[in-house]
Write a structure and sequence with these properties.
The complex is a heterodimer of chains A (174) and B (292).
Chain A: H1 5-13, H2 25-29, H3 40-48, H4 52-57, H5 60-63, H6 69-73, H7 80-93, H8 101-117, H9 122-132, H10 141-149, H11 162-172
Helix pairs in contact in A: 1-7, 8-9, 8-11
Chain B: E1 2-5, H1 16-28, E2 32-35, H2 44-50, H3 54-67, E3 73-75, H4 78-93, H5 95-105, E4 115-117, H6 118-126, H7 128-134, E5 143-147, H8 156-159, H9 169-176, E6 180-181, H10 195-198, H11 200-216, E7 221-224, H12 227-235, E8 245-247, H13 248-256, H14 261-264, H15 273-278
Parallel strand pairs in B: 1-2, 1-3, 3-4, 5-6, 5-7, 7-8
Helix pairs in contact in B: 1-13, 2-3, 3-4, 3-5, 4-5, 6-7
The chains are: A mainly alpha (174), B alpha/beta (292).
């Protein structure tokens, strides 16, 4: 039998979701709740009710900006941002399409660059994101050009001996 | 005084002027920043979104490198600070995670390394008195609101720095430099961070609100302590009249009278020079030659 969502999330995040008594402080303080379908408090409840599909397909888990406002205010010390991270990872592991496709694409490209270079490299990452995302290609061209002209998007990546060791960390971290 | 230094990826790219002004300010104060050799990316928000193990091992490698030097580790970027301090917290409090991280990175955690944001070093090690004594060009007339963003102060049990609701360290430093700090309630609100590319609408909304509240508070500029916040503040304000945003280190350097400061203003997407000129804080442009 498949493990329920609560135990999966608890194992990954280390958080005790059953402590939630739904005071709604997380949702009241969430800066991105306006763009969400349910909001963090409802997501916690849905996890408890094992509404696996609805939770893992929701855009909410991808919209969480990781600001830790909820984690700071929760009277039961539940790190709800860590719960959102665990839900994202479960969604990816289960092969469920991300509710915010471009958010997942951004994270994948970012880590792909770090895996190869050991450090981030904006020019490559932004270029790939522009081509692969659903965001219209002309958007942010002005800002991107502005950054480039100010010397803030170096074309060549920094060479560092960190790269080989970082690749090992990717292989060892699951 | 010597510190280990983790500049983070943005100090050499999108946050160029943060890196430069950090180094100039510290040099001026006689504080030596020794860059950790061969440091790597902390993984930022992408690692913890997709791989909780990697979100610990990437920063832990830097921690392992810094630990050898037995100096406090200084980190300008709020996101890097949060990730490295978060890994330190896991190593300190969770024996199981500690064993896993140590095995993956190949080191033994000593728990003796202090990981600190710039603001903490300036406030606690240098002190307001010394900062005040160094001021050659007080920022008189510059009305600002301090903007910390999230990751310097949240979650507080990890960051162990300042007050997550009403932080005072940056405002105190700015006051010591002669700026007028306007009271507001949004110093630790979120700018939308990494959603900037995939959901710029959400970030425009959040940054727009910050700029509006800053104006209501009577500020002419925002002062940040995070390269990601700074990017969003400059890229995601809409409308014609945009509020300039500074890194606090740039304003300290300006107040110290450091000549390098003038090289940083053109790097901003929102040019802060008209504001600084109007207050007489930087020299006027060469006068336009009168028509013959």
């Amino acid at each position: 039998m498949e493990a329920n969502l609560t135990s999966i999330v608890s194992a990954v995040s280390g958080e005790s979701l059953e402590l939630c008594y739904h005071c709604h402080k997380c949702t009241a303080g969430c800066p991105v709740v306006g763009a969400m379908e349910y909001g963090p408090d409802s997501i916690l409840r849905m996890v408890a009710l094992d509404q696996r599909d609805q939770v893992l397909r929701s855009r909410d888990i991808w919209l969480c900006a990781g600001c830790y406002t909820c984690a700071t205010r929760c009277p039961n010390d539940i790190d709800i941002a860590a719960v959102m991270d665990a839900l994202r990872q479960e969604a990816v592991a289960a092969g469920i399409p991300a509710g915010e496709r471009d958010a997942l694409l951004f994270h994948r490209l970012f880590l792909g660059v770090v895996k190869r270079l050991g450090r981030s490299h904006e020019a490559v990452m932004l270029g790939l994101f522009k081509v692969l995302s659903h965001v219209p290609i002309y958007r942010d061209m002005g800002a991107g050009l502005g950054l480039f002209l100010r010397g803030k998007v170096p074309i060549l990546p920094e060479r560092t001996r960190a790269a080989a060791e970082v690749r090992q960390l990717f292989e060892r971290s699951h | 005084m010597e510190y280990s230094y983790y500049p983070g990826c943005s100090a050499h790219s999108t946050g160029l002027e943060f890196g430069l002004s950090t180094e100039a300010t510290f040099r001026h104060l006689g504080l030596e920043l020794k860059e950790i050799p061969d440091w790597n990316c902390c993984g930022a928000s992408s690692a913890h979104s997709l791989n909780h193990q990697l979100a610990l091992t990437l920063p832990a490698r830097n921690l392992a490198l810094a630990q050898q030097a037995e100096r406090d580790l200084v980190i300008p970027c709020a996101a890097c600070f949060s990730r490295v301090k978060g890994a330190d917290h896991a190593l300190r409090t969770d024996a199981r995670k500690r064993a896993e991280i140590e095995a993956a990175v190949g080191f033994t955690y000593t728990g003796k390394l202090a990981i600190r944001p710039l603001l903490s070093v300036l406030y606690e090690d240098v002190g307001l008195g010394r900062i005040h004594d160094e001021i050659r060009r007080p920022l008189t007339g510059l009305k600002v609101v301090p903007y910390y963003g999230c990751l310097l102060v949240r979650p507080p049990q990890v960051t162990e720095f300042d007050d997550p609701n009403d932080p005072h360290v940056m405002p105190d430093l700015l006051r010591a430099a002669g700026a007028e700090v306007r009271p507001w309630s949004h110093a630790t609100d979120c700018c939308g961070a990494g959603l900037s590319l995939s959901r710029s609408d959400v970030v425009f909304n959040l940054v727009g609100r910050l700029a509006e509240r800053a104006r209501e508070a009577g500020a002419d500029a925002l002062v940040s302590a995070c390269p990601l916040c700074q990017m969003n503040l400059e890229m995601r304000q809409s409308g014609k009249e945009k509020l300039p945003a500074f890194y606090f280190t740039e304003l300290l350097a300006l107040a110290f009278g450091l000549p390098e400061a003038e090289k940083w203003w053109p790097k901003h997407l929102i040019d802060p020079r008209p504001l600084l000129r109007s207050l007489g804080l930087i020299g006027a442009v060469a006068p336009v030659r009168a028509a013959a």
